[in-house]
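WARN retry 2 of 3 for item q-0093 after timeout on previous attempt; input resubmitted unchanged.
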Amino acid sequence: MNRGRGWLIGVCWLMSLAGVAAQAQTSSAQLSISLSVQSSISLIFQNNPNVNTPGFCPLTNSGTNNVGLDLGTAAFPGSFHTSTCVNYAHVGAAFYQVSSAFDVVVSKANTSSPSYRLAAEISTAPPANVVWLVNNVTLSNTAFVALDAADNYGQAITKTLQVQVKNTVPTQTLQETITFLATAN
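OK item q-0093 returned
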């Protein structure tokens, strides 16, 4: 009979060791997180709904912040111009102007700014007797020039690019990069 009791004690002792080994080990830690939400605004150019009619040439890459605008070829005598989408006009006795409109859309995120200011600057000084304008405001390559003081976010704002050329400017290709700057109010 001693044998039976010893076997029972041995089984109980093995079971109690199995219970100790099955207990899970635990540990804890904390991770503190810091995040700053930054406000932002974005500016894109879009074709005006009147695109491909006089005064509304199509933009290349419309819907982005990096677009192109081809105003074709123009000359003073005979009101000559090759693009059916530009507006062509004589400005005084010695200048002509080609122009085309497009839309600027500025959107906002994470800001309580009620509106934005819009300015523009050309990248290089134009040749003599050539003037670059947006909505009749002459652009400069030395500083941003204010175009609007309080435009509403999310609305298409139509801007007209104008190039005025004197009839004595020699034959050449006029190219310019215009940077638009939207600043939250």
